[in-house]
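Quick board copy: two proteins, each given as sequence then tokens.
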Amino acid sequence: MGSVFERGRRGGARLKWSLAAVTASASFALDFVAKRWAQGALLPGERRGFLPLLDLQLVANKGVAFGMLAGRSFLIQLAAAAALCVIVAYVIVERRSIPAGLAGGLLIGGSLGNLVERATTGQVTDFLKLPHWPNFNLADIFIVVGVVLVAVSLAGGGGKSSAGAGAGGGEAGS
């Protein structure tokens, strides 16, 4: 049985990785279900009004953001795998469990959602459309929100040891 400090750090790590796993699983599942729904409910290229400023339009994206690198599936998959390693490293070094778990989970789930589809079909299903913006999917939203959370966390001093962090492993303010 360890000291109170060691138990607090283990508890913070358990919370961080549990939150990351649940968030990644939920975001991966939501993205998967939404893409399958779009493939069954929409015809390729068909555009339907959905919400003000948001339409549904099914497209197959063989590239990455804005269709870049189309036809370079191996390079895209390699870059995605490297990005997943960086995301896991962030979760490891971020001392605050909630920002690390949420951001890491969103980034992992979103990245895996697009990576798995690209590896199995050679393309990614995009079905959300804003005016004057390329089509995207839920995985893309999860990735963007995850990146914003990481940026906010890093701008706020995330991952740095602070005086008085104590047994909570930097949990104060999370």
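And the next:
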Amino acid sequence: MKGRDLFCRIPLWMFTLLGAVLLLTRLLGIRIYAVASGSMEPAYQVGGLIFVRKTEPEKIREGDCITYLFQEKTITHRVQRIDRDRRVFLTKGDGNAAQDAPVPFSALVGKASSFAVPLLGYGVIWLKGLSWWEAAILMGGALALTLIWDIVLIGRLRRRRKRREAS
């Protein structure tokens, strides 16, 4: 297989790998989020991907990074204190000067990973901006182009084999 043929198969492998990662994380109860602001820098850079596992509030400790819902937004900040009597977390972004409003235990999505995968979140942020039908057209188009390329590639390989056999 020539280099350009291998190069053209990279998108197929990328989609396959992405699909496998998304499926595996779902099966393990892990959700993936893109870092959209610098409130947690330097721990999480803008454009990074973080992994969030559903966790009971009682298992969260001070210093953990948690993801929670606040006014229809998903936020990931570090726990500064836990008030178990009032059942709230007191959080603050590492890059923020002020502490956040108290976060009720019921708003907890889960505990965030201690690392972020750099840059991959930009794609997620871009995809989230698409409507469902735009995303479906994009994914369908990528799949169709990959299949067409494979059909063309297979045709070329068959013609080459026939020429070799004929000579």
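Board note added afterward: The chain has two domains: 3-129, 130-160.
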